[in-house]
Amino acid sequence: MTTPADERAALQDGLRRTAVALLEAGIPFALVGGYAAWARGAPEPSHDADFAVTEEDVGRAKEALTAAGLEVVQPAENWLFKAYHHGQLIDVLFRMVGEPITHQMLATAEELEVLAVRMPVLQATEIVSAKMRVLGEHYCDFTWLLPTARALREQIDWDRVRQEVGDHPYGRAFLFLVDELGITGGGPRSTSSPGRAELADED
Hints:
Helices cover 43% and strands 18% of the residues. By secondary structure, the protein is of the alpha+beta class. It folds into two domains: 1-122, 2-Layer Sandwich (Beta Polymerase, domain 2), CATH 3.30.460; 123-203, no CATH class.
């Protein structure tokens, strides 16, 4: 019977194997999602690890991960493929929030040491912005996103995030929350009730 410690070790090993396989194959990629945030100081996720490649490199990426001993599976979704290492999931995305992964986006990743392997890691602004833009009616869980935003707050370009989530009501709701908590750097909003200033003027 596996334990949470065994599962985490397997997931971390799968992450390392995936990164090394892509590096050795010369495939441009970036670590994204929860483990990219963790590499930058956020809490460690527990359910999977996420990588990004361009769609043109999907075939080579599948071959590289298969050769590295991972079990590669193509799900029904047309924006990623999955790889498993001792039952632990690695998602390899070629679209994020409906947009294709591009070489330009991958070029913005910063090389960091993650679990003793140097690899490109997505910037904090992109990580948090993408997570906020996938919030919706069927998935609106702030449990991971809130501590992540707090941990990475000084690395995030909040003005850019505001622009990118402008058309996403659930993302705007999260922005309101982090503004109220002072996480975005602007401090909490005024708690004055609407119309108080007008009432004062009338007095």
